[in-house]
Amino acid sequence: MAANVIDGKYDSALLGILQHEGQIDKFLDVILGFLYRRTDFYRIMKTKQDSMGFPEGVAVKLLLSAYKKYEHFAKRDEEYRQRMMEQKRKQDAMEITELTDSTPPPAAKIVEIETSNVPSASDIADGPPAGDKNVCQSEPADDKPRETEPLQIEQNTDSVDTPQNMSGDGKKTEAKVRTGDEKDDNPDETRRQQQYQANPESYNGAIRENYSWSQSITDIDAHVKVPKSVRKGKDVKVEIQRKYLKVCYKDDSGGWREVVNDALMWEVNKEESMWSLVPGEHVHVSLEKVQERWWEALLQNEDKINVRKIDASRPMTDLGDEEQAKIEEMMYNDRQKKMGLPQTHEQKVHNILKQAWDADGSPFKGQPFDPSKVNVSGNNMQIGGP
């Protein structure tokens, strides 16, 4: 499911295996070996009555489908990088043309030029316009050193239509960056959600009497308890509809007992949702959300959680192309500043001046480019004359 691209909760375990094996082919051998030893992945269903395995050829199609899905993501990422590089080349070429076509000022010992058209660190830190779905805002950078906090992108947890996220005129409040300074008005609720967050099966979700559920911005994972006597798939019935979930198991008397039978909080993609049985423990139901939003409950008749108290951070890969480019530029500038190296807007000015340095009409024509004569600071640029 799409959650595996976005949600890296298994990365540490998988990275440990990969580092231990050292090569991709050995890593894949470990994964497929696990499927062979501990699952019915390689078992062929010979009749319709078989409750384990897959029809011949289905397992191979599953592997090929997973490969093609991530191949598509890789191609999309490469196309995005190429588009960004092409846009940057065109923009730099236009600015160089504008600079060389203009008449340069006469040579002087010190010339101070206002460069309001050059983006400053604060301009770069400004996020997308208000109302954008994925908004990441940051305070303008200053020249004073300060302790750096980890960068955390917070999804708009107010996307759920609850009274807490509606203003007086009925409009939704905007996404924000979590600062940690907000007053906790319900310590018991916070403490309870912290307990949920400590359990992978209820991360960003909750633990209920017969089941637990967790979520990412795109997916829901529910674990429905079953007795130890439930060992085979034929002992379980699971019905997943667009906005409905039903889970039953066969009890000792041969009858069917409902564990979950309720409407879902929001709609899911039925075709992309699936379930599996962990014998004697639980039924694992994976649901793909139709809309990217944080659910305050799995079922409509369930107690609701406060989505303001969950971990709403999400990887940069889940943001739009424009937001990713903006955040990457901010992170790059932060590293450059710490190392005392020029930031993006300073590099941009230097590149333009370097190409215009020896242009016709330039006071520096015929001289080697000397970056020490150019000082870009804040919104001002100082050029030392010959």
Strand order, largest beta sheet: 2-3-4-9-8
End-to-end gap: 63 Å
Give the low-pLDDT segments: 1-5, 107-182
H and E order: HHHHEHHEEEEEEEEHHEE
| Class by alpha and beta content | alpha+beta
Task: Give the overall silhouette.
Answer: elongated
- Main β-sheet: number of strands, strand sense, barrel status? 5 strands, antiparallel
Q: Helical amount among residues, as a percent range?
A: 25-40%
Strand content: 15-25%
Cα-atom radius of gyration: 28 Å
Count of alpha and pi helical runs: 8
Strand tally: 11
What number is the mean pLDDT? 74
Characterise this structure.
- With 386 residues, the protein is an alpha+beta fold.
- The protein has 8 helices and 11 strands.
- 31% of the residues lie in helices and 16% in strands.
- Helix 4 crosses helix 8.
- The N terminus is likely disordered.
Key terms for this structure?
single chain, 386 residues, five-stranded antiparallel beta sheet, disordered N terminus, alpha+beta
Which helices and strands appear, and what pairs or packs with what?
Layout: H1 3-6, H2 11-21, H3 24-38, H4 58-101, E1 110-114, H5 121-125, H6 187-197, E2 206-207, E3 211-215, E4 219-225, E5 236-241, E6 244-250, E7 256-263, E8 274-278, E9 282-288, H7 321-338, H8 344-356, E10 374-377, E11 380-384
Antiparallel strand pairs: 1-11, 2-3, 3-4, 4-9, 5-6, 6-7, 8-9, 10-11
